[in-house]
Amino acid sequence: LTENQEIVVFNSKNPFNFHDIFHRIDDIADQQVFGILTKPNKEGVFPLIIGVAGSAGWGDHHYGYLDRYLELGVAVFSLHSFKSRNVESTVGDQLTVTIPMMINDAFMALNKLSEDKNIDVNRAGITGWSLGGGVTLFSAWSPIQEAISPNLKFAAHLPFYPPCMIIPDELR
User: What is the pTM of this model?
Assistant: First the structure.
């Protein structure tokens, strides 16, 4: 870790599917999750981007995108949903860490980061690649937002090549 980075630990859950989020989230045990918060090398209150890796985990190209946000004066949070669950990759097995688990992680991270006086969570966005792109895409779905985090939402969603294997009946 560099001097402008910190590991942030928070509680999330392991909803296997969207049905779990909508109907039984309170019955699911807590899961400790972590991420790495990096702030720009200056004083101030910063907008935030939460980054979500794809099935192969975090790669240099992902960090390259996050570095660009830092150069623009945006704090970045690299969410580590896999390592938090002792999983290196979900390539070939998308059931060990699911999109609903990662969506819950992202909203719980946003909630935890709202406690940081140098983070403006009203200007928080989420971006992700592949599987993380699916997290980014479906975290914009209003029914998910209302179920997980009715009072705190992302202001922007930028998915890169998300898997679009779910067609919701309700399109809000």
Answer: 0.91
